[in-house]
Write a structure and sequence with these properties.
The structure holds 2 protein chains of 2 kinds. Chain A is α/β, with parallel strands linked by helices. Chain A has helices at 48-56, 83-89, 111-123, 127-140, 146-149, 159-171, 189-206, 217-223, 241-246, 251-259, 299-303, 328-334, 337-345, and strands at residues 6-16, 21-32, 37-41, 64-73, 76-77, 94-97, 177-181, 209-214, 226-231, 234-240, 309-310, 317-318. Classes of the chains: A alpha/beta, B mainly alpha. The structure holds adenosine-5'-diphosphate (ADP), iron/sulfur cluster and magnesium ion.
Chain lengths: 346, 393
């Protein structure tokens, strides 16, 4: 097997707040191959963005701190790099685009200025060359009239167009990894589909690996090869799209799948949803973090924190004590959730 | 843009009219007519007679107002029998006005026009030419003569404007040069010891009345400092020493600074406290903004992020604040001028109010009003220059 592009090992990122230490990311490990498209899914507050910001080296002490872990990117541990070295990776080899395109661009500079800034910085080209590259980048994201739009300010673009600009900016330096943090959450549904489509094609053409952060399993299905599900700062399950959709091993994943509104289901009927709220990241419960909301919890769940371990299909991993005994796949296919669940737990 | 400015000017004019009516009425209602004091002196009878005729003081209020307004906007002519000698014309103010206009226009062109350097050069040459053409021009309006016998109001007011400008702009400059970098630095080092210190100091300065600050500075930096060191560093009254005319150039500069420092500092301290707070808040907003995160994610060096992406945005709200403050300063460091015996319009104003010298009071109120109206428009234009999202329509 070739060396992975990105290897995260036991990453822990904590924030010091007045109420106490927020364990936003608490010991996660995963790998990404070159060109892999990986979905990071979880409720809001589960640590997805903090994971991304940690990889980008944008966690700023003293408020936040990566307390342990390694983030090995192309053979280099990013956490050991100096700020200068990190700057050449940021935007150059790892690019990131954010949730809200309306506020992600600086309102007082033109699109061209902001695009060319990145290009000049990372590619050591002249202004004129940078301009050409910028125009091409805008054309690639299908912005009409690119050479003129270059002189426009962000407020002259719609939300979808701005997100295209962000994608152009992200891809302009041909990064190895593009992190997209909920890139379509702020957009309307039709625009969402267009943007995802665009990203899919651009990433595929260039072989760029993409980490797609979202709380929407539906978006992941059409885009990613692999998925990791996060809950309360940890990864609770990971595997291929197929594994996750058709053979979930963790009750939380199963719950997420159930709470998806199925477009193919005319009744828009939700199979089951997860009640309750995620735990406070300051005072995490003993044992399994999902336990307070888990309908399958037993005594061991209360005492022992389950670790991520191979279970289910080859390559699939889950962090649940009861993966083997619960047949979640059967439960979700049956649709007779209430009866089946109470049967299992009793 | 032109339509916008025209509209704003019309609104401004309406505002000024309303202001003049209100102040005029209040002055009349304040009891003790303007002539009461003069009447105590029997020899003043002919003078009173002349004033009454000139200002229509025996007429109904609205007619008096009308007379005042008509005079106020009419240029002096030599046929005016009373108080319009125009020995002191606008010519002294023209260089300043033209310079300000030239700088503003140049800045505007540099920011907005494509071929900016050539455009800026043309404008500058143009302004310098106008400056020369008009350098001897003298304009005066018929603002009447002071009831207290201090001569033509136009002369009186404009002989004081220079002093107020000198004090006001020095204070403003001090406040800007210290307050804004201070606020920015505090924001960058939020919650550091320095930041906390700055915050505390700003609150103390901001909540201390200006006369306390002025007196404290006088006692500390003039009185005590002289007692301790034996050197007289600062003066506490006046704008220059009597022998100013005979001093050498360097001595003149020293003398000017020695007089200017303390009153300017008193005014500056309070403005400075305000600016630093405001700048700190605005900078913090920007530092936490999404687009700054984008800038970091691009891999830009920290200095570039601060200077290019943060500063430019953080300065926008300050422009309005400062523009309005300029008008406020023209309007007078009234208290400061009184404490430091500074011969500016602030002190003139206080004396004029005390004696219900209404041509003087009205003139000064209107100058302040005009200043505020103009600076408001300037603020809006500058805002548009700095922020491409702003449109004039
Ligand atoms: N700068 C910060 N200071 C304190 N807590 C933070 C900070 N950033 C994130 N957190 C906390 O970390 C947790 C995870 O946040 P995040 O990664 O943004 O979640 P999401 O999965 O929705 O992207 C949240 O509970 C959040 O409150
Ligand atoms: S370990 Fe127990 S509580 Fe946690 S998810 Fe599995 S069954 Fe539920
Ligand atoms: Mg997030």
């Amino acid at each position: 097997m070739t060396e992975p592009l990105l290897k995260v090992e036991d990453l822990r990122t904590y924030f010091a707040t007045e109420e106490g230490v927020v364990r936003a990311v608490d010991g996660i490990s995963f790998e990404m191959r070159r060109g892999e498209r990986r979905g990071v899914v979880g409720e809001s507050g589960s640590g997805k963005s903090v994971t991304a910001m940690s990889i980008m080296g944008l966690i700023e002490p003293p408020a936040g701190d990566i307390v342990t872990g390694r983030i090995v990117f192309d053979g280099q541990n990013l956490l050991e790099l100096s700020e200068d070295e990190m700057q050449s990776i940021r935007g150059g080899r790892i690019a990131m685009i954010f949730q809200d395109p309306m506020t992600a661009l600086n309102p007082v500079y033109t699109i061209g200025d902001q695009l060319m800034e990145t290009i000049v910085l990372h590619q050591k080209v002249s202004k004129a060359e940078a301009r050409e590259i910028a125009i091409q980048a805008l054309r690639d994201v299908q912005i009409p009239n690119a050479e003129h739009r270059l002189n426009d300010y962000p407020h002259q673009f719609s939300g979808g167009m701005r997100q295209r600009v962000m994608i152009a900016m992200g891809l302009s330096c041909s990064p190895d990894l593009l992190i997209a943090d909920e890139p379509t959450t702020a957009l309307d549904v039709t625009t969402q589909a267009q943007i995802m489509d665009l990203m899919l094609h651009l990433a595929e053409d260039r072989g760029t690996a993409v980490m797609l952060i979202t709380h929407d399993l539906g978006v992941v299905a059409g885009f990613c090869d692999t998925v990791q599900v996060m809950y309360a700062g940890g990864i609770v399950e990971s595997g291929t799209i197929d594994d996750i959709y058709h053979n979930p091993q963790h009750p939380y994943t199963w719950g997420l799948l159930g709470s998806m509104t199925r477009l193919d289901d005319a009744t828009q009927h939700r199979l089951h949803s997860i009640s309750g709220a995620p735990p406070s990241l300051i005072k995490l419960p003993e044992g399994c973090r999902f336990r307070p909301r888990c309908q399958f919890a037993t005594d061991i769940c209360r005492q022992v924190l389950p670790v991520l371990r191979p279970v289910g299909n080859p390559g699939q991993m889950a962090a649940c004590h009861r993966s083997e005994e619960l047949d979640l796949k059967a439960l979700s296919v049956d649709g007779e959730v209430g009866a089946a669940a109470s049967e299992v737990t009793s | 843009m032109l339509a916008y400015i025209t509209r704003r000017l019309v609104y401004g004019l309406v505002t000024l009219l309303a202001l003049s009516i209100i102040v005029f009425t209040l002055l009349q209602l304040s009891g003790g007519g303007p002539l009461d004091r003069l009447k105590l002196n029997p020899r003043m009878a002919p003078y009173i007679q002349a004033l009454t005729e000139q200002w229509g003081l025996d007429q109904p209020l609205y007619k008096q107002y009308w007379t005042w307004l008509r005079n106020y906007v009419s240029p002096c002519t030599s046929t005016d029998p009373q108080g319009c000698t125009s020995s002191f014309g606008l010519k002294n103010a023209i260089p300043i006005i033209m310079l300000v206009l030239a700088i503003a226009a140049t800045a505007f062109v540099v920011y907005s026009v494509k071929n900016h350097w050539r455009g800026a050069l043309v404008l500058l040459v143009w302004f310098v030419a106008i400056l020369f053409a008009f350098r001897n021009m003298s304009i005066a309006f018929n603002w009447g003569i002071s009831f207290q016998g201090a001569g033509p109001v136009w002369d009186l007011v404009f002989s004081r404007v220079g002093a107020t400008f000198r004090l006001g702009f020095t204070a403003l400059l001090l406040a800007l040069m210290v307050g804004i970098p201070l606020g920015i630095y505090q924001a960058i080092r939020q919650y550091s010891f320095f930041d906390q210190l700055g915050t505390t100091a700003a609150f103390v300065a901001f909540s201390t009345p200006i006369f306390v600050i002025a007196l404290a500075l006088q006692i500390l930096l003039a009185l005590k400092l002289e007692q301790w060191t034996g050197v007289k560093l600062f003066y506490v009254t006046g704008m220059n020493n009597p022998g100013y005319g005979e001093m050498s150039f360097l001595q003149q500069i020293a003398d000017t600074l020695q007089h200017l420092t303390l009153p300017a500092l008193s005014i500056a301290l309070i403005s400075l406290a305000g600016y630093s707070r405001f700048q700190r808040a605005s900078m913090l907003d920007v530092l936490h903004s999404d687009y700054l995160r984008t800038a970091k994610a691009k891999g830009l060096p920290r200095r570039r992020i601060i200077v290019k992406h943060a500063l430019r945005n953080a300065l926008i709200p300050i422009v309005t604040l400062v523009s309005l403050d300029v008008a406020f300063i023209i309007g007078g460091a009234i208290i400061t001028e009184s404490i430091f015996g500074w011969p500016g319009i602030g002190r003139l104003y206080i004396v004029a109010i005390g004696t219900v010298d209404y041509p003087v009071v009205m003139s000064i109120v209107m100058i302040i009003g005009i200043g505020i109206v103009i600076m408001n428009i300037v603020a809006d234009i500058l805002y548009g220059v700095m922020d491409p999202r702003v449109r004039y329509d």
